[in-house]
Design brief:
The chain is mostly beta strands. It is built from 1 helix and 5 strands, in the order H-E-E-E-E-E. The strands form 2 sheets. The chain has a 3-stranded antiparallel beta sheet with strand order 1-4-5, with no helix packed on it.
């Protein structure tokens, strides 16, 4: 072809890959401090148990606490149901 574009598999794949862009923003994990709390709202498609109560197929508000452990980094732990 005149523009130099060939339709063999390698050339076509190479031209498609040049146009594809994947972007996302990462949250800086250092921002969270142990003991920080938050309340999230979720719809539970799967059963979730906090302490002795299990809920499922409903909108819920959950209080979470940020826990940081050596070797594991940090994670949000469910503390209690808020509704």
């Amino acid at each position: 072809m005149e523009d130099g574009f060939q339709y063999d598999g390698v050339q076509l794949l190479t031209s498609v890959i040049k146009d594809v862009k994947m972007r996302w923003k990462s949250k800086n994990e250092v921002d969270e401090v142990g003991g920080t709390k938050r309340i999230i709202t979720r719809f539970l498609f799967f059963p979730r148990k906090i302490k002795s109560e299990t809920r499922w197929l409903e909108w819920v508000r959950i209080e979470q606490e940020y826990v940081s452990e050596p070797g594991y980094g940090g994670f949000w732990k469910n503390v209690r149901w808020c509704n």
